């Protein structure tokens, strides 16, 4: 007996989109078999959609970023100042959530909006490996603060 694909689509539409990540999880949440979910994908009634984080910066944070960049421009020559004595710290992020996430969606469904205020709200360790190019090195951070480290 053939299974009505419209009925399967209605069952899939009733579960939250966040449950549409992988075939097994989608099938369990909808109460159908994995074969039906795979068949719906092959038939084109269900499609995969890739989502990424979208920045949700406030106007104040955007302004702070522009001010930080402008602080490195020489007022007289209107060129960037030499940054040979500035150490840029590279951060390694171990995110709680991945940037890319694939959802299986019906034609009328939209992928969920995945915003983060900033990456400061994602738990992560940070490390740096500064080096000395001159006698004095200043370490700058993204918020515009700087400190000097004297070399030997």
UniProtKB/TrEMBL annotation:
GO molecular function: nucleic acid binding
Source superkingdom: Eukaryota
Protein's recorded name: Transposase Tc1-like domain-containing protein
Organism encoding this protein: Phytophthora nicotianae P1569
Organism ancestry: Eukaryota, Sar, Stramenopiles, Oomycota, Peronosporomycetes
């Amino acid at each position: 007996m053939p299974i009505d694909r419209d009925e399967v689509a209605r069952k899939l539409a009733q579960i939250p989109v966040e449950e549409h990540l992988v075939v097994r999880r989608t099938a369990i949440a909808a109460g159908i078999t994995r074969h039906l979910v795979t068949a719906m994908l092959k038939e084109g009634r269900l499609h995969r959609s890739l989502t990424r984080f979208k920045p949700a910066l406030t106007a104040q944070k955007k302004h702070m970023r522009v001010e930080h960049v402008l602080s490195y421009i020489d007022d007289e020559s209107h060129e960037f100042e030499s940054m040979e004595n500035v150490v840029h710290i590279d951060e390694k992020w171990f995110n709680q959530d991945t940037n890319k996430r694939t959802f299986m969606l019906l034609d009328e469904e939209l992928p969920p909006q995945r915003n983060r205020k900033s990456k400061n709200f994602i738990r992560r360790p940070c490390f740096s490996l500064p080096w000395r190019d001159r006698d004095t090195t200043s370490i700058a951070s993204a918020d515009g603060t700087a400190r000097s480290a004297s070399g030997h």
